[in-house]
Specification:
By secondary structure, the protein is mainly alpha-helical. The protein has one domain (6-126). 67% of the residues lie in helices and 0% in strands. The chain is built from 6 helices and no strands.
Length: 127
């Protein structure tokens, strides 16, 4: 059996010995830790959004290339995003966040949309 830990986590994912939830679990845990730290910083929503893009989103990339997120994983990804940006209000929805800054948004797609895009893009490259 291949034990998936630390530095060989992505190797296990690439080999395909994990279920979708098992593959995303360490990634979501890492992202949630970063999200909690980011939410504790005294920054504006725009600054948090920029940091979110370059510090939290890339963690998802290797796993999303191999595994399509399930509904349970999508829910967890939404929680990570809401935690990181401090979105406690349902008023700031993903469609609003994806708008241009001039229209009141942050030009930021949801994490679940990003995960689906990464997987689809990888699939198209392979085919």
């Amino acid at each position: 059996d291949l034990k998936v830990v630390g530095s060989i986590c992505y190797l296990g994912i690439q080999i395909g010995h994990l279920t979708t939830e098992e593959a995303y679990a360490p990634i979501i845990q890492e992202m949630m830790g970063r999200a909690r730290y980011l939410s504790s910083l005294p920054l504006s929503l725009q600054e948090k959004t920029q940091i979110f893009r370059i510090w939290i989103c890339p963690v998802l990339y290797p796993t999303a290339r191999v595994y399509v997120p399930t509904d349970a994983v999508k829910g967890q990804l939404t929680l990570v995003q809401r935690q990181a940006l401090g979105l406690n209000s349902m008023g700031l929805t993903n469609p609003i966040m994806s708008e241009r800054p001039g229209l009141g948004g942050m030009n930021l797609a949801s994490l679940m949309t990003y995960a689906l895009w990464v997987h689809s893009f990888t699939f198209v490259q392979v085919v």
